[in-house]
Amino acid sequence: MKKFEVETPAPAGGEDGPLSRRGDLDLIIGLVPYGAKVLDLGCGDGLLLERLRREKGTDGRGVERDSRAVIACMRRGIPVIQGDLDEGLADFPDKSFDVVVISHTLQQVNQPRALLLEAGRVGRQVIVGFPNFGYWRIRLSLLFQGRMPKSTILPYEWYDTPNIHLLTLTDFEIFCRQEGFGICRRLGLRHPSWKSVSLLPGVRAAYALYLLDAAAVHAPRPATEPASADSEPIQVVEE
């Protein structure tokens, strides 16, 4: 596995600036090469893909389950497939994308390992972002209150949270070693400022963003082969 480096970007905006809401989008955009072919899994309203197209000249499309978000993508002119990520990515051939993005999504799917391996199959690189359950405020909340913790980035009660597979930076890096993902870059980020944490990110970072090399990932072949030119085409929703 490649030796990774800890990045220390200094995005503009500060605690109350323009990055306070979704400053991670700026960081993701910085990791995507110009002109790349991008697949965004759990693309939401398509804002990231719209910005990538405008700022990086990318050819992007998304996969999203929520019908309201699909409509929002259509309004932005973003090609989007409405589908459940837990059903896999069988419609996409191997290495058909330069970059696959999984941001604010991994901890909400039923089969995160399967999704990551599929992302490594269809993409040459994978960008993954998730809340860090090893964040010091979460640790202290569990220690002193004995309750499932809440924070600005994990604001839900235990009974209504969409986050069903919480993980730490250490968990994720062990997974990458086991499955053959090379960690090219790691960003440990504060929230809501989205500023980088260079010292003890496993404890001090509320959110983690990784750029992975998928060249050595050996994902299982999907049960259904990608559709051929003579079969029914993928249903892509476009405006």
Query: Strand count, sense and closure of the main sheet?
Result: 8 strands, mixed
Straight-line distance between termini: 42 Å
Bulk shape: globular
CATH superfamily: Vaccinia Virus protein VP39
Estimate percent helicity. Answer: 25-40%
Structural class: alpha/beta
Poorly predicted residue ranges: 1-20
Strand order of the largest sheet: 1-7-8-6-5-2-3-4
Number of strands: 8
Task: Please tally the helical runs, counting DSSP H or I stretches of 4 or more residues.
Answer: 7
CATH T-level topology: Rossmann fold
Rg of Cα set: 18 Å
Average residue-wise pLDDT: 85
* Level-2 CATH architecture: 3-Layer(aba) Sandwich
Please write the string of helix (H) and strand (E) elements.
EHEHEHEEHEHHEHE
Question: Which CATH C-level class is it?
Answer: Alpha Beta
Domain module tally: 1
Q: How much beta, percentage-wise?
A: 15-25%
How would you summarize the topology of this molecule?
Layout lengths: L4 E2 L17 H8 L5 E5 L5 H10 L2 E6 L2 H10 L3 E3 L14 E7 L8 H11 E9 L4 H10 L23 H11 L2 E8 L11 H4 L2 E7 L26
Parallel strand pairs: 1-7, 2-3, 2-5, 3-4, 5-6
Antiparallel strand pairs: 6-8, 7-8
Structural summary, described in words:
The chain has 239 residues and is an alpha/beta fold. It has one domain (5-213): Vaccinia Virus protein VP39 (Rossmann fold). It is 27% helix and 20% strand. It has helices at residues 24-31, 47-56, 67-76, 112-122, 136-145, 169-179, 201-204, and strands at 5-6, 37-41, 59-64, 80-82, 97-103, 123-131, 182-189, 207-213. Strands 1-7-8-6-5-2-3-4 form an eight-stranded mixed β-sheet, with helices on both faces. Strand 5 (97-103), helix 4 (112-122) and strand 6 form a beta-alpha-beta unit. The longest helix has 11 residues, at 112-122. It is globular. The termini are far apart. Residues 1-20 have low confidence and may be disordered.
